[in-house]
Amino acid sequence: MLLNQYSNGYRYNSDTIFLYNFISKYKIKGSLLDIGSGCGILGLLIKRDFPHVSLSQIDIQDKNVYLTKKNALANDIDSKVLLGDFATYCFEEKYDFTISNPPFYHSGTLKSEDESLFLSRHSDALKIDDLVKKAYSILKPKGSLILCYDAKQIDTILTKLSISKFKVNELQFIHVNLEKPATLVMIYAKRESKSLCKILPPLVLYDKGEYTQFVKNIFKKADTNSEDT
């Protein structure tokens, strides 16, 4: 998949590729909303692999909406792209899935002076409370929210999901290597679920300074290339 990106500005990273792989192991069907689409990569990859899904994508920045539309057209993928603040947007439909690689740099970190980077990276731009509450309200009964987040904030996100009446079905932590703490957590949560939470084996990125074979396979599966625009 060829993805246009801005040479100066937020650019997708491997977190999104790992989240795409996590999402794609589920039976994705029906309608899906990609929250904070950026250049469109996450939703477009899912639509590519699950062509019968009805894809919508939303971003608060008009420049990102333009880029998402451009990448959808370049890859011949049908997507309904929306411009607006997810937390306050008035959606006209309910979804079977909501997915997101949201901004999660916490308020204590140094904020970028660039407004675009701030909106893409910092949790103040889309607070986790607002994300999970809104996601719950626009999901169909038994609908799913799948996202990744800063592993150090796992206590906060699990609390917020529980308050918003989500049941966490699966968790997977990402580690740079086996000697270091987790940096990222991927979460599959559902409305009206009674399943116990399953903790999946960790995703380990490096072994002896090189990507593990499993990670190499994920990048091969995603098959993305970037081009500056």
Mean pLDDT: 91
CATH architecture: 3-Layer(aba) Sandwich
**What is the CA–CA distance across the termini?**
15 Å
Following the backbone from N to C, one meets helices and strands in this order, namely EHEHEHEEHHEHEEEEEEHE
Low-confidence stretches: 116-124
- The figure for the number of domains is 1
**CATH superfamily membership, which one?**
Vaccinia Virus protein VP39
Structural class: alpha/beta
Strand portion: 25-35%
| Count of β-strands | 13
Number of separate helices: 7
* CATH third-level topology: Rossmann fold
The CATH class: Alpha Beta
The radius of gyration over CA amounts to 17 Å
Apparent shape: globular
Estimated helix fraction: 25-40%
Largest sheet, strands/sense/barrel: 9 strands, mixed
Topology record:
Layout: E1 2-5, H1 14-24, E2 31-35, H2 41-49, E3 54-59, H3 62-74, E4 80-83, E5 95-100, H4 115-121, H5 128-138, E6 139-150, H6 154-163, E7 166-175, E8 182-191, E9 198-199, E10 203-204, E11 206-207, E12 210-211, H7 213-222, E13 225-228
Parallel strand pairs: 1-13, 2-3, 2-5, 3-4, 5-6, 7-9, 7-10
Antiparallel strand pairs: 6-8, 7-8, 11-12
Helix pairs in contact: 1-2, 1-7
Based on the model shown, name its key terms.
229 residues, alpha/beta, Rossmann fold, 7 helices, 31% helix
What's the gist of this structure?
By secondary structure, the protein is of the alpha/beta class.
